[in-house]
Amino acid sequence: MTDIDKTAGPKDTPPAGAEAIKAIPVRHYGRYVTAVIAIAVLVAIINAFAQGKINWHAIPDYFFDDRIMTGVGKTLLLTVLSMLIGIVGGIILAVMRLSKNPVTSAIAWFYIWFFRGTPVLVQLFLWFNLGLVFEYINLMPVYKDYWSSFMTPLLTALLGLGLNEAAYMAEICRAGLLAVDEGQTEAAHALGMSHGKTLRRVVIPQAMRVIVPPTGNEVINMLKTTSLVAQVQFSELFRYAQDIGQNSGAPVEMYFLAAAWYLIMTSVLSVGQYYLERYYARGSSRTLPPTPWQKVKKHLTTFSSRKVTA
Amino acid sequence: MTDKLSKKQDTRPRDAVPMVKAEGVHKSFGQVEVLKGIDLEVKPGEVFCLIGPSGSGKSTFLRCINHLEKINAGRLYVDGDLVGYRQQGDKLYELRDREVAMKRRDIGMVFQRFNLFPHMTAVENVMEAPVQVKGASRGEARERAMQLLERVGLADRAGHYPSQLSGGQQQRVAIARALAMEPKLMLFDEPTSALDPELVGDVLDVMRDLAESGMTMVVVTHEMGFAREVGDSLVFMDGGVVVESGHPRDVLTNPRHERTQSFLSKVL
């Protein structure tokens, strides 16, 4: 990939005065060999799956089934909302952790220690069954109900996933905040900006460059982790796929279907992450890297100009 | 600017209240004592140069003036007010962060490494503090920022990010950024030390222009030529103490102290 990038650009415009070099490029035979091996292995794998006892026709039949689509929607909703809780919580925890106030710093430490140290699945079950400890939820004038009817599957899923995520995001955000040069804080303070303003206007925007890539990772991770909440009675993609599989007598096929949907969603998220990273890179490099579409366009034009010179 | 100066002269005689006054200022980092009792006075409208070998404490002293570093002993006053503390009777009260920030508004600072905000364009860098700290409107702040960029000769670079500017241009934007808060005192921490030699001149020109407009400036520098031409007072520091002080021309041409002589013989 990078090989192509380096050679594609300036080579095709020969200098005006001097005669351009015409040499036979180095042949990379290893590339042909590896390509042949890779294709052979791929064919073998596809062949094995095609001959297995799997009813492939069931997958397109159910691919856009209403239940599957609802499941996809709920998975996405859960991912977005839990990540929102995770990111906001993570930033707050990171700031608390780095604060000069020893009390807030200790609270943040304790929170991260607990939520990072226990499995998500266990936390989900704990939230679901907290009714044993708190029989009622009582927000005096606003709301009062039994814990069991208050803690719906959605809320359990959100709290379980979101609060756990906040602990991880806190560490990511902390690394980002620490990565910003101290001179930036000093410059902002010297201008008379308060701690809060300095953080919001100067430090966090620069920390984002460090925070976004691992956060993209976390979003993709979260999308997949949502499949766990089927265990606390929340129906999302995986749960619906399982249900259909049991009713239609094609359980394994539905796992393939779910896998395909997860793959589609994570692919879309990866593209989004690319553009987000590009946005936060502004100012840090002199020219922004080209978008994939710009790269494709460049390759197309260089191909055509190659034909002209040949 | 002239308006401000004349007002100052009306309310109090020019040399009654020094802009900066240090009395026995001490500062330690852990076990290391960096400042060992600094006494000096900077008069309003004066260009005050601090020279000395690296590690002599001159940058640390500069950073104490706007309370980026806390002093351990002595008293430090800016325009008659204690820096970082409030005195009531014989007790000292530490100022809250908000109060410290309030005082810093009036003191501009220019750093050796520029420290421009890399995610903002030149004009946004200059606008930032007036909008965020003083609550100026964006339009008003932009207009004023453009005037300041014009003054440092960079109006055509307003839309550039710091990474797209040379070191000298970045430092001039940094000066404009500090001036945007209309400070009564400007601190320069080796403003030309990180620059290519050919870019130093542009920055010094801007500083000279600023000095002529009557700004009070405290300049930590290795540019002896600038100190001699523009400076009104000069202090040579070494090992955390003031070794020699006086008019730049006197100190630079006829250093009395042996330590000053050996330093200058290496630098000049």
UniProtKB/TrEMBL annotation, chain A:
The chain crosses the membrane at residues 32-50, 76-96, 108-134, 146-163, 255-276. The HisPMQJ complex is composed of two ATP-binding proteins (HisP), two transmembrane proteins (HisM and HisQ) and a solute-binding protein (HisJ). The HisPMQ-ArgT complex is composed of two ATP-binding proteins (HisP), two transmembrane proteins (HisM and HisQ) and a solute-binding protein (ArgT). It is found in: Cell membrane. This is Histidine/lysine/arginine/ornithine transport system permease protein HisM. It holds the Pfam family BPD_transp_1. Residues 72-273 form the ABC transmembrane type-1 domain. Belongs to the binding-protein-dependent transport system permease family. It comes from Streptomyces achromogenes. The lineage of its organism: Bacteria, Bacillati, Actinomycetota, Actinomycetes, Kitasatosporales. The keyword Cell membrane applies. Keywords: Cell membrane, Membrane, Transmembrane, Transmembrane helix, Transport.
